[in-house]
Amino acid sequence: MRKENISDAVIRRLPRYYRQLTDLCNRGVVRISSHSLGQEMNITASQIRQDFSCFGEFGQQGYGYNVEELRAEIGHILGVDNNHHLIMIGVGNLGHALLQNFPFSQSGFTVDAAFDVSPAVIGTVVNNVPVYAMSELDHFLQDHPVDVVVLTIPQSVAQDTASHLINLGVKGFWNFTNIELSSQLPDVQFENIHFADSLLTLSYRIANR
Amino acid sequence: MRKENISDAVIRRLPRYYRQLTDLCNRGVVRISSHSLGQEMNITASQIRQDFSCFGEFGQQGYGYNVEELRAEIGHILGVDNNHHLIMIGVGNLGHALLQNFPFSQSGFTVDAAFDVSPAVIGTVVNNVPVYAMSELDHFLQDHPVDVVVLTIPQSVAQDTASHLINLGVKGFWNFTNIELSSQLPDVQFENIHFADSLLTLSYRIANR
DNA sequence: TAGATTGTTAATCGATTAACAATC
DNA sequence: TAGATTGTTAATCGATTAACAATC
Questions:
Q1: How far, in Å, are A186, B75, B136 from residue A140 at the CA level?
Q2: What is the CATH number of the domain that holds A181?
């Protein structure tokens, strides 16, 4: 029974399923039951079946799930076969590290360009991605619609940059600055990587063991 | 009414409160009610009061909360005044970026050292943090107990490295590799930054807008 | 066929929100 | 004092788990 509104809890488990299924594929496992999958991932079989049932019927009674097929289905749900386009704003240490190491294409993203204000990086090419001056950003977006902008810029300019990009039609942000961004428009999506928040929860758990 | 077991949902909101209160402090705001705080953070006043009540009574009827005081209390709960010690394993692009830019001390962490296998970085000092050879790790840990190890290493060696460190007594991991780490020992804490999972949830939301 | 396992409905559990007496 | 706002109890909502008929 396909559901209309999928809860955030379910969505956040999808990438984990996808990861686990990719691993099972690589290990040559052909079929798996919700029970075995649950054991490997430390979640209940019930939850797995409930989660999947939000999107369709991918299994077979008495058999379980075909690993490769299920992986493809979840990948499809996540949009990995959509060839999303992405640019990066801010090629400092972190931006550079992501361009260099993060396998964007494995998540279905093509990195079209990066932008920065520093003359030291403008004009360089990092892992096949050209770095342009910030002044060229508006013009670039006219010809190259992008689905996601990665924000690896200083906090101080984060909201202004985001607002500017929203005005230019950008609807998706992968935000690495440790602030909550906001938008007037309702259909703009922010996904945050809050390093400090993450470390502080670890700090809490250590301090209150 | 202090609670025994605090739910993960509550814990994950604490850093956000801390961040918002720090901001309010900087803006010179002296007092705030749960209602106003909720408006700024887009959560209900009820939830805020429930959350705080897990840890104690920090407000005053008819007045609200003293911002600076509340910030200090939450910081204390999070352990920012515990002076936790931390080392990093893996000084590649990402590790280097974190050492260079991430304000560990603001979260109450002292970075004692970093370790890598590459001769290119061994012996260097990044932002006052010395980089040692991996072979010196065991010896180092004998003299320098650490609370948290940052894992910015390739996936392929992540679980083995973690297991080794757990045997040496390490109880906290800030894991940047995109795999689920596990431990036999029950009191070992893992906090994961799964870049790919994060981007995939954004991909989902864009694809299913 | 018999055993296994699904998708779904019902039951339970936990988290969020509402309400309100207490009190600054 | 009167108004405001807390901390907490009760009500609601949503998410997880259990149960089971359907069926491969």
A1: 25, 43, 49
A2: 3.40.50.720
Question: With the C-alpha atoms ordered A95, B91, A209, B181, is the resulting torsion angle positive or negative?
Answer: positive
Asked whether residue B204 is assigned to any structural domain, the reply reads no
Q: What's the pLDDT score for residue B2?
A: 72
A40 with A133, same domain: the answer is no
Q: Dihedrals φ, ψ of B78, to 5°?
A: -70, -15
Nucleotide whose C1' lies closest to the alpha carbon of residue B57: D7
Nearest nt to the CA of A46 via C1' is D17
State how far residue A26 is from chain B, nearest Cα, in angstroms: 14
- Does residue A159 sit in the same domain as residue A98? yes
pLDDT digits (tens, 9 = 90+) for B14-47: 999 999 999 999 999 999 999 999 999 999 999 9
Domain housing A163: 84-198
Are residue A15 and residue A100 in the same domain, yes or no?
no
3-state secondary structure of B108: coil
Domain count within chain A: 2
Query: Average of pLDDT values for B90-118?
Result: 98
- CATH assignment at residue B50: 1.10.10.10
* Residues packed against strand C, CB within 7 Å: A 1, 32-35, 45-46, 49-50, 52-53, 57-65; B 7-10, 43-44, 46-47, 49-50, 60-63
Q: Is B92 annotated as a binding residue?
A: yes
Q: pLDDT band at A1, cuts 50/70/90?
A: low
